[in-house]
Specification:
132 residues; 1 helix
Amino acid sequence: MMKNKMHLKVLLPTEVLADEVASKVTAEARNGSFCLLPRHIDFVAALVPGILVFTTEDKKENYLAVDEGTLIKCGQEVLISTLNGVRSTDLESLKATVEENFLHLDEYERITRTALARLEAGVIRRFMELEQ
């Protein structure tokens, strides 16, 4: 790989969100935003939920909304592992996609919490029946 490019790979638990050559990566860690260029020293950061921006070989900016995760830059390789993420080439469609995904997650979490509460109530009821 050329010295003025990096290989960016963004991994989710179930898929590879990005696997591209990039000339610049900007992300946000717990202590603030940072920018990685190809000659940047090796680097590790704990990412916070936010927008990750990377510039491809054809000078186009790409946007990823990412959850908490870990970024490792070693040589020309930049590896990011995160629990959740979505990708877009413009911020407006990224915003719409994030809102849609969060609404879906909120509904899924509500259904899961309801099922768990019912399960817990059933277990407690059975324990009380055993005591009698």
